[in-house]
């Protein structure tokens, strides 16, 4: 994938009303490939929205550069940048019809009305809203508004689409449907997406690559599977999905925590301080492994979520097990089996 | 862009305030012929207002004092009387009407909500001459009473509009005056802000009062208007300065009370 | 509705109903009646129908007793023009300032909003008088121009002075509705417009103006109504050149004592204002339906 967008050493500081300086972007280096779906993921205040707004041009970066397709965008005003944005609030123009909203980008660049109508109809078709062109945004449902915002942003065929938590206002079912649809659309259009979200599930579902941010820096960037299976830091491991972390010292292929819990590691793990990452789904109820007692069993439908207090002491371990007639209950003794080869070790992280 | 906007705003405020500052400064200028050529500081014009000036008999007629200080005092008294009665009447009646249309749904409600806008929307000159013909037709002598009646017509409408807008944004439960923050603000609004607004508008009314004030019932604005019509005189600067000062004090006081109420 | 609430309602509504039907509707009706009555000799009135009051203004006078005097039509048009220009200038002055204040931090906003409304509390006639001081030949403007060796422009007793005076006293009327509209403007709409490639002027014309239209229209109407029938400002600053229809009304009532003709002129003012209001409500309804 050839590079489309390159951000180099971007920094941006804000001054809070109390007069303190707050580094929203603290040296960001990032490239986005042509047609790639990149998600910026992180808690609120991590700088993901600032980064998106910097790409769109709503925020100027203090230093660093932003290039798109070899063209330097750093000092260009938003209207001069060939990128489009889907806003969190959708920001549809209330006084215009859906069709005029969608055709706005074409209207302002002076496209003839007849051509415009064709392009608008085309864009509305792509998002599945073919027959709503004459309505006003206030007459639409949340999901429909979302699609209009999308159609409006893609109508001029930008190379890069920026999406600022576009699904956060939708209810859960609609959100899941839209995730799939959006991914599908992105694939068909071949436009690169930079997608901002704080929802890790959304990020895992949709992205080609996830960029986890924290305090204005990139904590880790990689494919969803890598981010999930092989987190580089404690922060990433804890932010993405539920996780069990065992911090301790590695000796002879075994990690020993301060509490005395022993975790077998893949062969050849170097000695020293490290943290082992085991997802709740990595455990099975077996006969050999970590012994403990169930302190809480939460019924989740097909699955059962167990909190297990290990006999060795230390924090509870989260485990997901299939629900069955003989499933353990509160107070039952269990043994948590796992495959040492699949344990991810963050070397040097304590 | 941002700098030019700030510069524009600066000029805007200069435009708003410069004329007022000019009046104040030159009310202390002792040059009576060309008031804007500074000739030294004086309080003579203020003294003249209260009839304690010494330059009344200036042989060169340089200082022209008010023909009659009692006239000014009478006009001020008239204004205060009219404003007090008008404020009382219009706030009571206007608030009652606003309560009725916000609390109850009844037939003819839209007649009230729409009709109450009319006196405010009517050009004051039309209302003024209309009242003049009306009073003369029914044979009512022009007096302070006719001024009060005339001002009450549009002030009741004004109070209604303001209170209705306020009530529309208020929790209905607050009318029961439950002792929480909103109730406190509402009380301040009803007892301070609203009467203050009505009082100031009444004190400042010129057009309607102009048409329906008889010879003996001049108010402060009509009195100053007739002075201004007869030409610029240094004493007007002094009166004007006192009026500006009084208005600023009243407005600031109201704002302070308001801020105090909303902080509680 | 229970008898009790009915009684309550009657108690709340009867004072206003009584008062306004006598002292507001009464004058309106009587002025309408007067406008078609015959002016008597010596300032009186004869209770017989007479349509030439309006004829005198609009040009179908009989030519014997009443003569068509185009001056009234001219002055009416001038009043419309001056009021219109006042509205436009108020708009041009207030719009940028409204934006500027809307972007200030909370505390500064309160201060500047207060500063804009403050002069509104100082008497109208005092504020007009200030301009008389500035504009008169020996006034501030003349003094400043003379000091640098220039001829001062003659503004006093021209239409420019009338516009200046009206703009000055009506600025708060324009500012407050405009500001509330600008302040509630959704900033993300401006960003969306720029994002879609609209140049700043396109964003202004296509998004900002339509979105703040309620404030623009409201402020314009509130300024236009008192401006078009104004007689104080032209009286103080306008001189013969700056006479407006309001001055004509005042003249008919207080010096010429032709009340029926004055009433006809007042009815014309009312018609103009009603037309402006209807235009405004029609637009507001349309905008309301669009929302």
What's the gist of this structure?
Chain B has 264 residues and is an all-alpha fold.
Question: Strands, helices and their partners?
Answer:
The complex is a heterotrimer of chains A (350), B (264) and C (291).
Chain A: E1 3-15, E2 21-33, E3 37-41, H1 48-56, E4 63-68, E5 71-72, E6 83-86, H2 98-102, H3 104-108, H4 113-126, H5 142-154, E7 160-164, H6 172-189, E8 192-197, H7 200-206, E9 209-214, E10 217-222, H8 224-229, H9 234-239, E11 244-251, E12 254-257, E13 262-264, E14 272-278, E15 284-299, E16 303-310, E17 317-322, E18 333-337, E19 344-347
Parallel strand pairs in A: 3-8, 3-9, 6-7, 7-8
Antiparallel strand pairs in A: 1-2, 1-4, 4-5, 9-10, 11-12, 11-14, 12-13, 14-19, 15-16, 15-18, 16-17
Chain B: H1 2-26, H2 44-49, H3 69-103, H4 109-115, H5 118-121, H6 124-137, H7 144-168, H8 181-204, H9 207-212, H10 220-229, H11 234-263
Chain C: H1 3-34, E1 37-39, E2 45-49, H2 52-58, H3 70-102, H4 106-121, H5 124-135, H6 140-147, H7 159-183, H8 187-195, H9 200-211, H10 213-228, H11 232-238, H12 245-254, H13 259-290
Helix pairs in contact in C: 3-7, 3-10, 5-7, 5-11, 7-10, 7-11, 8-9, 10-13, 12-13
Task: Characterize the structure shown.
The complex is a heterotrimer of chains A (350), B (264) and C (291). By secondary structure, chain A is an alpha+beta fold. Chain A is 24% helix and 36% strand. In chain A, strand 12 (254-257) and strand 13 (262-264) form a beta hairpin. In chain A, helix 4 (113-126) packs across helix 5 (142-154). The model of chain A has no long low-confidence stretch (mean pLDDT 91). The model of chain B is unreliable at 56-64 (pLDDT under 50). Chain B has 264 residues and is mainly alpha-helical. Chain B is built from eleven helices and no strands. Chain B folds into two domains: 2-49, no CATH class; 69-232, Orthogonal Bundle (MetI-like fold), CATH 1.10.3720. Chain C has a domain at 70-257: MetI-like fold (Orthogonal Bundle), CATH 1.10.3720. The radius of gyration of chain C is 24 Å and the shape is globular. Chain C is mostly helical and 291 residues long. In chain C, strands 1-2 form a two-stranded antiparallel ribbon. Chains in contact: A-C, B-C. Chains B and C meet through helix 1, helix 3, helix 5, helix 6 and helix 7 of B and helix 1, helix 3, helix 4, helix 5 and helix 6 of C.
